Amino acid sequence: MEIFEEAYIGPVRLKNRIIRSATFEGAADANGFPTEAYFNLYKQLAAHDVAAVISGFTYITRNGKAMHPGQAGCDSPEKLDSFRRLTDMLHRYDCKAFLQIAHTGRQTMSSVTGCPVVGVSAQKSVYFKEKPDVLNIPEAHGLIDSFGKAAQLAQQAGFDGIQLHAAHGYLIHQFLHPAINNRTDEFKLNPGTGIGTFFLQRIIENIREKCGNSFPILVKVSASDDYKKHFTLTQFLHLIDFLDLMKVSAIEISYGTMDAAFNIFRGDFPGERILAENYFYKQKSPLSKWIMGNLIFPSIKKKFIELQPMYNLPFAVEASAATRIPIIVVGGFKRGEEIRHAIHDCQIDFVSMSRPFIAEPDLVTKLKKNSQYESICQSCNQCAVMCDSQYPTRCYTHGKHEVTHDSTIPFEQNLIITQ
Ligand SMILES: Cc1cc2nc3c(=O)[nH]c(=O)nc-3n(C[C@H](O)[C@H](O)[C@H](O)COP(=O)(O)O)c2cc1C
Ligand code: SF4
After folding, report:
1. What are the boundaries of each domain within the chain?
2. How far, in Å, is the centroid of ligand 1 from the Cα of 353?
3. What is the average pLDDT score of the chain?
4. Residue 292: per-residue pLDDT
5. Considering 67, 138, 269, 382, which has the largest number of Cβ atoms within 10 A of its Cβ?
6. Residue 409: what pLDDT?
7. Which fold has domain 7-262+307-378?
8. What pLDDT sits at residue 52?
9. Of 50, 173, 269, 354, which is best to mutate to test ligand 1, by the most ligand atoms within 8 angstroms of its C-beta?
10. What atom in ligand 2 is closest to the CA of residue 381?
11. Residue 9 exposed, middle or buried by CB count within 10 Å (0-12, 13-18, 19+)
12. What sign has the CA pseudo-torsion 314, 318, 324, 330?
């Protein structure tokens, strides 16, 4: 397999094997409608040879909205025209479009959503700290139906498929995970495999009832995580077997949960930026911030996994050996050689990236010209921390030049395209 050859996800032809992985845009208005900044961001990507984009996570219901400002929603038919405009634009560049649909479950805050936090169990997230109301059976079925309706909206808006966010500790992941799902009803863990797939199964079935069998359903999963009772390789392979049985269109392999968010993307831990922007820290007194910055953060930092190139590739290789469903691998790809290694040497169908595309929306065009190209992204994670701000996602460091954060600069001027 080669990077620059066509490949398929279900019936959808992609012009090459590089995908923009779901990346929160922070560019929707207070009601979840995409703004001009949202369209501009995607235009930059589409105009520069990306085969497909997976949108940032969009919320299916108000109680499943993230705490970050500016998240887009797929919760109402009123959004149809905006999303139709987006897919029309992407398709003009032969860039395929997948809408990522999600419910945060316990990983949000009632003060932001205006609704009680809900979850698979009453167990709190160690990061979000709010005890969720346990979803009862009718409520769980209601959310299954909302996932189906969101997929239907995506189909009507011209998306080539949807991606279910079953990774990073969000609601579907909470149902799957044996350390979080302690239910005894129909949504309990499967006795044979020890993982809770029934919620996801019903979502996939509901989407097929509403959208037909040929509408592509992609699923993003976390291969493992950092809980004491972490998801084991055996459980991960049970999950792949389940997705194989459900005949989903592609599986994207990621890692972790928001309880240890820096292990999802890895790299630097920008402590100062966290103290200035993070919802939980920015209100604290100067003394508390000093203690956090000088005593607590250094010890937290030590617990994070060091960034290695292609860090989810070993899991992707395991998955690929277990199924013929196309595998997408994400995490720590920055060099042309690494992408080639995954696709050509390891026979992984697609490589997806997030931060390198924030730093350089024209990355694929550069790789086309120079197969040895290395992204300028420094994995400093300033962009990740700034998801907590009210500004659209962008790169805060270009190459070796630190860009002063000036939130008064309009988004378009911040989006520097390096040729
Ligand atoms: C700013 C930012 C926003 C992200 N938003 C999402 C998202 O909405 N949905 C998702 O599944 N992953 C999201 N991720 C995770 C990425 O898709 C990806 O899994 C992770 O960053 C590792 O890939 P990378 O090394 O290419 O950045 C986000 C990451 C970053 C840095
Ligand atoms: S701010 Fe820029 S350089 Fe830093 S991780 Fe994000 S994209 Fe990469």
Report:
1. 7-262+307-378
2. 8
3. 93
4. 84
5. 382
6. 35
7. TIM Barrel (3.20.20)
8. 98
9. 354
10. 5
11. buried
12. negative
